[in-house]
Design goal:
The protein has 13 helices and no strands. The chain has about 280 residues and is mostly helical. The longest helix is centred in the first third of the chain and has 35 residues.
């Protein structure tokens, strides 16, 4: 455990980049072997759009990283936050507790409020317009949403009281899990269902990308599925019934054109239909 902490205390940027690129490459290849849907689309064109948004997210996180570093340093120096106030515990339990709480505030809460507040939904909508969900879709976030998510992550670090090594560990796991549960892969149903009791499985998250309510407003989890089950936002549907996208933007000229995707947050809100 000490070796893990030491590694993430000073994880090189090149290693983080390799994990991101390596994960995309791994699941990209896996999608060809065991595809969930056999899409008829230009995979490279689709990936180009999503990788553009991945790049903007990386740039924004890099430019704002000093805020995260300052926050993590401040909470540990001043013993502020939930983890700092808990009694001494084994390091494994301390780490799992921190990751669970970071996932609750930095991911689940962020995702939940992006669906509940129209101002935030305007930016998050771009993620849902994707009608060809694959591993590149996980980082399809408008630059405005990248800022929103960064803000929630910072609030999470502040409230939880995380040291920086735990933040780096969480972000690394988050990248891998996002690529995994967005990947266009088909796990055996029983295995996927068992996994969904502990982590966000591919089937579980893909329901969130169904094109109509109420499924769009469910399964908000990022790494751990416990929060959806606790807060009653877990839903299930047969994988064969899935249709990707969001019913307000099903036209390829809107959902598969980079220029329009960047403009969507500033366009009039369209009312979705209810299934």
């Amino acid at each position: 455990m000490n070796e893990l902490i030491a590694y993430f205390e000073s994880i090189p940027s090149s290693h983080r980049a390799a994990i991101l690129a390596g994960g995309i490459a791994f699941f990209w290849i896996l999608e060809s072997a065991v595809p969930f849907f056999k899409f008829r689309y230009n995979k490279w064109q689709h990936a180009g759009i999503n990788l553009f948004f991945t790049l903007t997210t990386i740039i924004i996180n890099f430019l704002l990283a000093f805020i995260l570093l300052f926050t993590a340093d401040w909470v540990t120096t001043h013993h502020f936050g939930l983890l700092q106030w808990l009694p001494k515990m084994p390091m494994v339990l301390y780490t799992v507790s921190g990751l669970l709480l970071l996932d609750l505030i930095g991911a689940y809460a962020a995702h939940y409020f992006e669906h509940r507040w129209y101002l935030l939904w305007r930016f998050h909508l771009i993620h849902h317009t994707d009608t060809y969900i694959d591993t590149t879709s996980g980082n399809r976030h408008h630059p405005g949403e990248s800022v929103i998510r960064f803000a929630f992550t910072t609030i999470g670090v502040l409230l939880v009281g995380c040291p920086m090594w735990m933040v780096f560990l969480y972000q690394t796991l988050s990248v891998v899990f996002t690529q995994f549960n967005h990947a266009n892969i088909c796990l055996p149903k029983k295995l996927d269902k068992i996994l969904s009791f502990f982590i966000v499985s591919p089937d579980m998250h893909k329901i969130h990308h169904h094109y109509q309510l109420p499924y769009t407003d469910s399964n908000y989890g990022n790494i751990f599925s416990i929060w959806d089950r606790i807060f009653g936002t877990f839903s299930y549907m047969e994988r064969e019934q899935l249709i990707y996208g969001v019913d307000t933007h099903m036209d390829p000229k809107e959902n598969n054109a980079l220029g329009n995707l960047l403009k969507i947050p500033f366009q009039p809100i369209r009312k979705p239909s209810q299934e």
